Amino acid sequence: MAIAQAPAPELELEVPRVRSRWAEVVRDFCRRRPLGAIGAAVIVLMIAVAVLAQVIAPYDPLGTNFGAMLSPPSAKHWLGTDTFGRDVLSRLIYGSRTALLVGFGASVLGATLGAILGVGSAYFAGRVDLYLQRLMDVFLSFPLIILALALVAILGNSIPNLIMAITVPMIPRCALVIRSSALSIREMPYVDAARAAGFGHTRIILRHMLPNVMAPYLIILTAFLGQAILLEASLSFLGLGVQEPIAAWGLMLRGAAVEFAESAPWMAIFPGLAISLAVFAFNLFGDSLRDALDPRLRTQ
Amino acid sequence: MTDIPLLEVRHLVKHFRVGGGLFGGGSGLVRAVEGVSFTIQRGETLGLVGESGCGKTTTGRCILQLERPTSGEILFEGHDLVPLGEAELRPFRRRIQVIFQDPYSSLNPRMTIGQMLAEPLAVHGIVPDRAARAARVQELLRHVGLLPQHADRYPHELSGGQRQRVGIGRALAMEPSLIICDEPVSALDVSIQAQIINLLEDLQAEFGLTYLFIAHDLSVVRHISDHVAVMYLGKVMELADRKSLYDSPLHPYTRALLAAVPIPDPELEARRERVVLKGEVPSTLRPPSGCVFHPRCPIAVERCAREVPELREIRPGHRAACLLA
To answer: With an 8 Å Cβ cutoff, are A4 and B144 in contact?
Structure first.
């Protein structure tokens, strides 16, 4: 009979530890998914612009200048001015703050709450799962924008309320996706081992299941970021989102921009481009991230 | 006190409902475990063998209370676990641990080995002090033949055999009395299998552990078990001490199983007498009447289809469920 303390020969193999795993992952991602890398670059640029808005914006976004009303793009006002003579470029730069704040706020909150609900639903299974999923179905039966509109109408339109209104319709969509991954995690022997060890439900859900649905969580998060930004712009455009005079892209498309669409098209074109670019960038990045994190596609 | 067995399973039944769903209809009942009874004495190993799908794993999961039995009793040191709620079960959970078959999916990929071993120590307050816990983790690693630096590794950095050692260490951390070994070696290479079996035997001697060893490999079970139970379609066919079961099996199913074990000698192997069973294992959705083994039994007579054989003592300490034994 062998002695337990003697390490088996297979144990002497040393696994080389990779130091800068993150740097390698990033480099690999850029090489394999150039489109995703472009998306990521645009996102990073947007974040930088939003953070440094005070430094890079040429004018005060709220500052009116009636001498330069509706002036076309020029060296002085690169993207022109609106009906109050406010600089469009400065308003776009500050508008990115609103877009990112609402976008990140709503999608992080929505995806996280959805993930917890999804994992919980999968873990408890049975009746809890059935009722939770039917409740989610009720929410899912409303189109995203209708539910958000109804919530803004109830809550009133401040930025925190806007984030709430976009978060709520995102929760069931995320819960649905996360639940399906969590269902397979629940059947894993390590979850059985945790149950057999007498760990509490909260511990099993948070420590053993949630970290293992990180891949779908990240994918959902980036996919919802684009959607949340679009939704914020739509709500602002419909007049139920951000209110004047706060700089927001959706808001810039509204009102005077419509009236002067033919004589001063720059008022609508540039915010529209900004929205498209942001949503496009987030979607590109999200898609690439999904492919990169999907083990079935990893080998290509 | 000493004559109370560590574990006694009485008439354990586990049925699974399949199909049906919201609107009912088309539902069936899988009779995974159908009245299984056995006892395990402290410090012993009971081998539980049978083909896949015979209910041996479900029996293990019922003892662990990962599945709630449909009926029956599971007496751990005389206490029935079946009626207990999750909170009342907690003190017992510490005493009954499990080692799984697949060393890949049985470890959480997002936790280091050290975290995995320390978690039960912290949660159950076995070692409340942080520094002492790290020392205990090192001790556990040593017990299962791993190196101290393995504490910082993630499961994907280890080999299958090393992972299985971690699984054993995790079970040991709870300081259990009974360990359910659910095919702990069948996913490993033959050379590693022997190491793990030896490790389990050494740990049993050192800590006075009791094992329920579930396997389909008869030679492994023969090596490690004191008693052996043979299961077929959710029922125990034969239950005896190792020697008696392997040397003079009473049940035709056990004989067929033993006859299927290859002999590692080409000459003997060529002359080996084989009992080839006809047909396939019947579905547990519709088990056969009478003796569940009768459609495939080489010696079945007409009454085997009508009468259900009880597991009865045929020789002292040797029980079989066969009308003809």
So the answer is: yes
Given a contact cutoff of 8 angstroms between Cβ atoms, the answer to whether B178 and B76 are in contact is: yes
Q: Shortest CB distance from B105 goes to which of A1, A189, A208?
A: A189
The pLDDT tens digits of the residues spanning A221-259 come to: 988 898 999 999 899 888 888 888 888 898 888 877 778
Chain B hits for A15, Cβ within 8 Å: 153, 157-158
Judge contact between B229 and B49, C-beta under 8 A: yes
Q: Residue A126 CA to chain centroid, in angstroms?
A: 31
- Helices A159-186 and A214-237 cross at an angle (nearest 10°) of 150
A1 CA: distance to closest CA in chain B (Å): 6
Distance CA A261, CA A268 (A): 7
Residues 6+ away with beta carbon under 8 Å from A162: A102, A106, A152, A232, A235, A241, A242
CA–CA dist B199, B221 (Å, integer): 15
Domains of chain A: 84-293 (1.10.3720.10)
d(CA A191, CA B235): 28
Reading the block at residue A171, the tokens are 């929760």
Other CB atoms within a 10 A radius of the CB of residue A66 amount to 9
- For A212, name the nearest residue in chain B, comparing CA atoms only: B110
pLDDT (tens digit per residue) in A46-102 = 999 999 988 888 888 888 888 878 888 888 888 888 888 888 899 999 999 989 999
Q: How far is A182 from chain B (nearest CA, A)?
A: 14
Quote the CA–CA distance of A234 and A237 in Å, as a whole number.
5
Q: Which among B183, B173, B32, B176 has a CA at the least distance from the CA of B102?
A: B183
B222 contacts B213 by C-beta, under 8 angstroms: no
pLDDT computed for residue A11 by the predictor: 45
- The single-letter DSSP state of residue A68 is G
Contact A10 B161 (CB under 8 A): yes
Domains of chain B are 7-232 (3.40.50.300), 251-325 (no CATH)
Q: In this complex, do A198 and B106 lie within 8 Å of one another by their Cβ atoms?
A: no
User: C-alpha angle with apex A236: A230 to A238, nearest 5 degrees?
Assistant: 105
What does residue B145 show for φ and ψ, rounded to 5 degrees? 75, 30
Percent of chain B with pLDDT over 70: 97
- Which residue, chain included where needed, has tokens 């043979």? B230
Task: Say if the ipTM goes beyond 0.95.
Answer: no
Residue for token pair 């816990």: B133
Is a pLDDT exceeding 70 seen at residue B21? Answer: no
Per the CB < 8 A criterion, the answer to whether A199 and A260 are in contact is no
- Range in A78-92, B53-67, B125-139 with the lowest mean pLDDT: A78-92
Ramachandran bin of B12, using left for φ above 0, alpha for ψ from -120 to 50, beta for the remaining angles: beta
Interface test with A, best of B67, B108, B188, B198 (most A CBs within 10 A): B108
Q: 3-state DSSP call for residue B297?
A: coil
The answer for residues whose C-beta is within 8 angstroms of residue B31's C-beta and 6 or more apart is: B13, B15, B233, B234, B284, B285, B287
Query: Is B243 in contact with B318 (CB distance < 8 Å)?
Result: no
- Mutate one of A5, A191, A192 to test the B interface: name it (highest B CB count within 10 A): A192
Model confidence at B287, pLDDT cuts 50, 70, 90, reads: confident
Predicted TM-score (pTM) of this structure: 0.80
**Distant-in-sequence, close-in-space partners of A105: CB < 8 Å, separation ≥ 6:** A163, A167
